[in-house]
């Protein structure tokens, strides 16, 4: 399957405002993103989960093929409410929705009744995802009494097109996080690092997924910051700089590890979006296509290994 590209909105270097601040301008950018070779866009606004759901709906309304990666976390709304809302967005999207689960601290009210810690957070995420999947697939109401959630007569009458197979994206580096991701994640978002660091993390994730018979079902995504001049805000990512040919060479080294998706950070102005699509994305896809074609030619040489790239710490 060819490499996919996902856009992670940040703040523009000029205005220093969120990507979705002015949706009239955002609509123009979304068109450039969709036409420039990006397959998906991440919705992760600082205003929170309910705002993310609203923005996801607006993005789906203003695009025809762009997938939406909706950032979500447990504890903001009850599983039954979330399951209904997400199923509704999934129906509206025509199958273009993916759920990006991230770890968030427990609320103060929860902290009064149970200890707050990394393990507890991921245990709650695990139970939450189990319930979402059950609500998206059950054909009759069910009751549930767990460590974090109590449900009576849980049922979502109108399922989304994905049903319980809605794509789940997760990340993390701890053993606890990888254990939960190994059970639930369809796409694992890797932490930035060197070639060797990323390779080792991929091996750990596959090992965690293998415990659930899912090692071959995982896809890997890597956040990449393309530096085209002035720095841009956003999450940490593998740092790629220089002209398109140099950036492509760096990304090819990571693609050789078996990465399926690059999540592009720091490309937010119309000019940056258009340039990245026209140059870097197109060049990388063409380079990968040539490598794949050469691999099937008689007497083809193996790809050159050991390409180096810089990584953000």
List the helices and strands and how they pair.
Blueprint lengths: L3 E5 L14 H13 L4 E4 L5 H14 L4 E6 L6 H15 L3 E5 L6 H4 L6 H20 L4 E4 L4 E5 L12 E5 L3 H10 L2 E3 L5 H16 L8 E9 L10 E4 L2 H12 L5 E5 L4 H26 L18
Parallel strand pairs: 1-2, 1-11, 2-3, 3-4, 4-7, 7-8, 8-9, 9-10, 9-11
Antiparallel strand pairs: 5-6
Helix pairs in contact: 1-9, 2-3, 3-5, 5-6, 6-7, 8-9
What does this structure look like?
The structure is a single chain. It contains 9 helices and 11 strands. The protein is an alpha/beta fold and 313 residues long. It folds into 2 domains: 196 residues, TIM Barrel (Alpha-Beta Barrel), CATH 3.20.20.30; 100 residues, no CATH class. The strands form 2 sheets. The chain has an 8-stranded parallel barrel with strand order 1-2-3-4-7-8-9-11. The chain has a two-stranded antiparallel sheet with strand order 5-6. Helix 7 links the parallel strand 8 and strand 9. Helix 1 runs parallel beside helix 9. The longest helix is centred in the last third of the chain and has 26 residues. The protein is globular. The C terminus is likely disordered.
């Amino acid at each position: 399957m060819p490499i996919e590209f996902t856009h992670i909105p940040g703040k523009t270097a000029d205005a220093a405002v969120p990507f979705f601040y002015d949706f009239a301008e955002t609509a123009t950018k979304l068109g450039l993103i969709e036409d420039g070779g990006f397959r998906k866009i991440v919705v992760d606004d600082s205003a929170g989960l309910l705002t993310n759901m609203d923005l996801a709906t607006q993005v789906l309304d203003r695009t025809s093929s762009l997938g939406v990666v909706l950032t979500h976390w447990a504890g903001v709304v009850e599983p039954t409410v979330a399951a209904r809302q997400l199923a509704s967005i999934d129906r509206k999207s025509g199958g273009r929705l993916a759920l990006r689960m991230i770890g968030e601290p427990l609320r103060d009210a929860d902290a009064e009744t149970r200890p707050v810690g990394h393990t507890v957070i991921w245990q709650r995420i695990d139970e939450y995802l189990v319930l979402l999947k059950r609500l998206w697939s059950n054909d009759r109401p069910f009751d549930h009494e767990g460590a974090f959630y109590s449900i009576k007569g849980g049922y979502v009458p109108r399922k989304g097109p994905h049903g319980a197979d809605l794509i789940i994206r997760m990340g993390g580096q701890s053993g606890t996080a990888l254990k939960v991701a190994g059970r639930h994640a369809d796409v694992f978002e890797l932490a930035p690092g060197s070639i060797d660091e990323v390779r080792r993390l991929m091996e750990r994730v596959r090992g965690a997924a293998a415990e659930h018979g899912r090692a071959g079902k995982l896809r890997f995504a890597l956040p990449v910051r393309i530096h085209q001049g002035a720095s841009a805000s956003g999450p940490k990512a593998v740092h790629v700089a220089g002209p398109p040919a140099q950036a492509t060479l760096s990304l090819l080294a990571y693609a050789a590890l078996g990465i399926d998706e690059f999540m592009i950070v720091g490309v937010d102005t119309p000019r940056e979006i258009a340039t990245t699509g026209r140059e870097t994305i197109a060049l990388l896809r063409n380079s990968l296509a040539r490598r794949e074609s050469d691999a099937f030619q008689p007497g083809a040489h193996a790809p050159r290994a050991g390409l180096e790239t810089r990584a953000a710490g």
